[in-house]
């Protein structure tokens, strides 16, 4: 069952952490201190976003498994939305209540509007 932790009071996770983004089926690494949105973008996956501070809700998606904690005390989700598994990847960090067995942690989210970003163009040849 998906879980969330209210505030980001603990140190960042040090266990290997990954994020799987459905329906793309892409799994990307999440480094300590990196939000789920930042991890996706760093791996070439674009998620809807706007404010990046948890207020606009443009990045809202469903967490299917795993746990998150937030960089801010109260992200823009109602208690009912949190209970339903909604998260805001722009301010969501991997939670600390999973992976206590020393195993790698995988967070699974469903973000129907996620897209793979095109690979960057190579630099022009020097003349």
TrEMBL record:
<dbReference type="GO" id="GO:0051537">
    <property type="term" value="F:2 iron, 2 sulfur cluster binding"/>
</dbReference>
<dbReference type="InterPro" id="IPR001041">
    <property type="entry name" value="2Fe-2S_ferredoxin-type"/>
</dbReference>
<keyword id="KW-0249">Electron transport</keyword>
<keyword id="KW-0408">Iron</keyword>
<keyword id="KW-0813">Transport</keyword>
<feature type="domain" description="2Fe-2S ferredoxin-type">
    <location>
        <begin position="17"/>
        <end position="111"/>
    </location>
</feature>
<protein>
    <submittedName>
        <fullName>Ferredoxin</fullName>
    </submittedName>
</protein>
<dbReference type="GO" id="GO:0046872">
    <property type="term" value="F:metal ion binding"/>
</dbReference>
<keyword id="KW-0001">2Fe-2S</keyword>
<dbReference type="InterPro" id="IPR036010">
    <property type="entry name" value="2Fe-2S_ferredoxin-like_sf"/>
</dbReference>
<dbReference type="InterPro" id="IPR012675">
    <property type="entry name" value="Beta-grasp_dom_sf"/>
</dbReference>
<comment type="similarity">
    <text>Belongs to the 2Fe2S plant-type ferredoxin family.</text>
</comment>
<keyword id="KW-0411">Iron-sulfur</keyword>
<keyword id="KW-0479">Metal-binding</keyword>
<dbReference type="Pfam" id="PF00111">
    <property type="entry name" value="Fer2"/>
</dbReference>
